[in-house]
Amino acid sequence: MDQSLALSVRDLKTHFVFRNSTARSVDGVSIDVPDNRTVAVVGESGSGKSVTSLSIMRLLAAPGRIVGGEILYRDRAGTVTDLAKASDAQMRRMRGSEIAMIFQEPMSSLNPLFTVGDQIAEMITLHERIDRAAAMHRVVELLETVEMPAAAKRVHDYPHQMSGGMRQRVMIAMALACRPRLLIADEPTTALDVTIQAQIIDLLKRLQSRYQMSILFITHNLGVVAEIADELVVMYAGQVVEKGPVASIFAQQRHPYTKGLLAATPNAALAATGDERRRLLAIPGSVPPVTAPRTGCVFAPRCGYVTPACRTTHPALVASGDGWTRCIRHEVLSHE
Ligand SMILES: Nc1ncnc2c1ncn2[C@@H]1O[C@H](COP(=O)(O)OP(=O)(O)OP(=O)(O)O)[C@@H](O)[C@H]1O
């Protein structure tokens, strides 16, 4: 594993095995997250983004199972662990002290019956041997770190007394309580309005440089990607179809699906190209079910660039420009 990486997911396969069918939700995904960098994973609903992040955290619900690949994680001491094979005890330690996760809806992770102060304090005392008074002092500090207004008063609030943006700040404070080296953020701003979304993104960027964290940021919003990410991974039907530096992909897409996603996101597309005439286009059709048999390229049925060969040959992920694409016609696209 390259010394500059915090996480290297290699050929990950996570399937849901039912009696009569198998959902190949994640089907050979490779993602590298460098130290102190943000990698965004985008794709339509059902493309396998959440199953990928839950696989890394080993929080999959049955019948979901990692059936292949490696999830290599380098801890602060430099030791590499394959999370795909780690024991439950090892994973509990990892989740506490190395890797943290925040979700779209903080309400589903917070307990409505306890104050936010108590919940953050519990997180701290799980990992540090300190008494309650010291823990509460740290809670206020953490809430100040996440720029919670009137932090010392807010520790006594119950989750329902807070706005969505404040609750997300509480979740980030809980994540920071264990000083993670890797933060997995699964659509953390999707439920928030645009102004609050921008504040949370800014906060995450400041925290990243202060705490030297790597961030794996799951989103379907390319505007957010433009704001926060260094590298982009585009997923489609359980596979990576394109990946590379954000600026390169925004300037030149090398997979028709990425082209369609950018065309459907006017702000990101405009920011990238400066072309104000770019029209809002939606990609016709929908992601095929992950239980469907696969021959050829999974995007072929929706692709404007399709050739007969695309329907019979499963394309490999190949180097193109300074990134990677899973399209046999990538050279045609890169000259457009
Ligand atoms: N518990 C489960 N049982 C069966 N199939 C599942 C389960 N969880 C996810 N899947 C399937 O795995 C595929 C990938 O789902 P996933 O939630 O990772 O997509 P996603 O890209 O995160 O979508 P969204 O943006 O809607 O969260 C979907 O087709 C979904 O139906």
Write a compact overview of the structure shown:
With 336 residues, the chain is an alpha/beta fold. Helix content is 35%, strand content 23%.
Please explain how this structure is put together.
The chain is of the alpha/beta class and 336 residues long. The chain has two domains: 5-98 and 180-334, Rossmann fold; 105-179, no CATH class. The chain has helices at residues 49-57, 88-97, 116-127, 132-145, 151-154, 164-176, 194-211, 222-228, 246-251, 256-263, 266-273, 308-312, 330-334, and strands at 5-17, 22-34, 38-42, 64-74, 80-82, 99-102, 182-186, 214-218, 231-236, 239-245, 318-320, 323-325. The strands form two sheets. The protein has an eight-stranded mixed beta sheet, sandwiched between helices. A four-stranded antiparallel beta sheet has the order 2-1-4-5, with helices on one face. Helix 4 crosses helix 6 (164-176) and helix 8 (222-228) packs across helix 11. The model is unreliable at 269-281 (pLDDT under 50). Adenosine-5'-triphosphate (ATP) binds next to strand 2 and helix 1.
Fraction of residues in helix: 25-40%
The class by helix and strand makeup works out as alpha/beta
Q: Briefly note the CATH topology name of the largest domain.
A: Rossmann fold
Which residues sit in consecutive blocks of at least 5 with pLDDT less than 50? 269-281
In CATH, what is the homologous superfamily of the largest domain?
P-loop containing nucleotide triphosphate hydrolases
Specify the overall morphology. Answer: globular
Q: What percent strand? A: 15-25%
Radius of gyration: 21 Å
What's the β-strand tally? 12
Bound molecules: adenosine-5'-triphosphate
| CA(first)-CA(last) distance | 35 Å
The biggest sheet, with number of strands, parallel, antiparallel or mixed sense and barrel status, is: 8 strands, mixed
Pfam families: ABC_tran (PF00005), oligo_HPY (PF08352)
GO cellular component, one term: plasma membrane
Protein name: ABC transporter ATP-binding protein
Family: Belongs to the ABC transporter superfamily.
